[in-house]
Specification:
alpha/beta; Rossmann fold; four-stranded parallel β-sheet; 12 helices; 9 strands; binds phosphoric acid mono(formamide)ester; binds norvaline
């Protein structure tokens, strides 16, 4: 594994190895292998971030490396310098890159032209680091993802939903995408997904029935702000609230990648009830991403 560009490009064995290492790294942060000693890594972000930025900055340092944060707006990329030129320059000076941006193709091109380990820290297409941390959380809370049923409710065509769809296809667990027709995964995307582990429904109650982990994300992803009013109106019936939870198993956990918009995709009540799990997800970003970096560096 040279890069982490998507869950789509991982196989079950690679995912399992990252999760196993993440769990070891979590047990003793002070014992982190110093695999980045003498290395300089860069975070290149053209979208906002709290969790991803902090967890990667801390993670690189805990692995012995040094890290610089480059906001897309502050470097020449923001004034139109092509990504392939940015990649070739940085590839001559730094040892690894962590990129949050819009187009998946930009991360792919950076990896290709820089020649250094490149990590997708969220694009419009995927959020692989998030789903690895979420799988780690499911393993901790439910014993294993094996045999579990996960439901993603809300914007079923967003980056987080798509990474969940690939995780389901690669690992073989059942995933229900619960979304109104307008926000269901695109047909051309689903045509590429192998197997029959993913089902799609436009009925919120049916979506949560018999589910072990009910997952939601913001209704207005970064870059979709112009569509906010319409999205919020259409997605209203998909809010995770006490009424909807009456249709779920009593043991079901609720997960959220954060940031959360209370009163929109989730109520204050459900979020606070489930806070121990939701903030474990946030913490596990650190451990899962350190495991990714160690895996990339060791090759
Ligand atoms: N979940 C997540 O990626 O959070 P940030 O946008 O704060 O990084
Ligand atoms: N789907 C959300 C995830 C935020 C972590 C977005 O892209 O804004």
């Amino acid at each position: 594994m040279k890069h982490l560009l998507s869950i789509e490009q991982l196989n079950a064995d690679e995912i399992e190895k990252i999760l196993a290492l993440a769990s070891v790294l979590k047990k003793d942060r002070k014992a982190s292998p110093q695999v980045l000693t003498g290395q300089q890594w860069a975070l290149i972000f053209t979208k906002s971030s709290t969790r991803t930025r902090v967890s990667f900055e801390v993670g690189v340092r805990e692995l012995g490396g040094q890290v610089m944060f480059l906001s897309g707006a502050d470097i020449q990329l923001g004034r139109g310098e092509p990504i392939k030129d940015t990649a070739r320059v940085m590839g001559r000076m730094i040892h690894g890159a962590i990129i949050r941006t819009f187009a998946q193709q930009d991360v792919v091109e950076f990896a290709q032209y820089s020649g250094i380990p490149t990590i997708n820290a969220l694009t419009d297409d995927e959020h692989p680091c998030q789903i690895l941390a979420d799988l780690q959380t499911i393993n901790e809370r439910l014993g294993s993802w094996k045999g579990k049923r996960v439901a993603f409710l809300g914007d079923g065509d967003c980056n987080v939903a798509r990474s969940w769809i690939w995780a389901s296809a690669r690992l073989g667990f059942e995933l229900v995408i619960g979304a109104p027709k307008e926000f269901q995964p695109a047909a051309d995307f689903m045509a590429k997904v192998p197997g029959d582990t993913v089902t799609i429904t436009d009925d919120p109650k049916a979506a949560v029935e018999g589910i072990d982990a009910i997952y939601t994300d913001v209704w207005v992803s970064m870059g979709k702000e112009d569509e906010a009013a319409g999205r919020i109106e259409t997605l209203k019936p998909w809010q995770i609230n006490a009424d909807l939870m009456k249709h779920a198993k009593s043991s079901a956990i609720v997960m959220h990648c954060l940031p959360a918009y209370r009163g929109k995709e989730i109520t204050e009540e459900v979020l606070e009830q489930q806070a121990p799990i939701i903030f474990d997800q946030a913490e596990n970003r650190l451990h899962a991403q350190k495991a990714v970096i160690v895996s990339l560096v060791r090759g």
